[in-house]
UniProtKB/TrEMBL annotation:
InterPro entries for the chain: DUF2997
Protein name: DUF2997 domain-containing protein
Pfam families: DUF2997
Native organism taxonomy: Bacteria, Bacillati, Cyanobacteriota, Cyanophyceae, Coleofasciculales
Length: 69
């Protein structure tokens, strides 16, 4: 599940936490929000940021051998 969590501090700072989005696409999701909030002071990537989306594929190979005896 994709989740955006915001913590707004009394001094006006906003902390944003993104979970459930794999790879760098989280930056695309949050870009418009960050532009409206103002200057980004710091950014820390989570392990999900560095995870690559998985693609599964299966290949089957069949080999038939016959004995001559």
């Amino acid at each position: 599940m994709e989740t955006l969590e915001f913590v707004i501090y009394p001094d006006g700072r906003v902390q944003e936490k993104v979970t459930g989005i794999v790879g760098a696409s989280c930056a695309e999701v949050t870009a418009a929000i960050e532009a409206q909030l103002g200057q980004v002071v710091s950014m820390e990537q989570t392990s999900e940021y560095f995870t690559q989306p998985t693609q599964q594929s299966a290949t089957a190979t069949a080999q038939a051998t016959y004995s001559s005896w």
